[in-house]
Amino acid sequence: MWIAIIVVVVLAGLAGLIILNARKQIKNLKDVKDSEKVKILTDSNFQNKIKTSAVLVDFWASWCVPCKMMIPVLNEVAEGANGKYTIAKVNVDEQKAIAAKFAIRSIPTMIMFQNDREVKRITGVKTKDYLLKELDRRISL
Q: Active-site positions?
């Protein structure tokens, strides 16, 4: 029985250290600027932008840590797009009507549009490779 208690105490201590380390990393997460190739969408330009070929729209907010984690990934995808697709962003705090229209319930949520039609919805933090595979799959359809 004592061994079980010791194991529980050690595991609880390790869990606490992991949580403290994660909090420290989140606090030290630096703000990364969007690439110039990432388009910022608003009520005035949203419909016009999603009408053109393939567009991946990231719904995000400035206070959202997972959203901040996606910035460098989306920047890399946008930099390598070579005109095959567009990467765009909608700030859900500033563009509430757009977020409501697409029933955005959690962020980050990314929606792929092709010729004004939603073709794929992705939620959460994803890798560059995952996004590229999904974009390539949707573009080739």
A: 64, 67
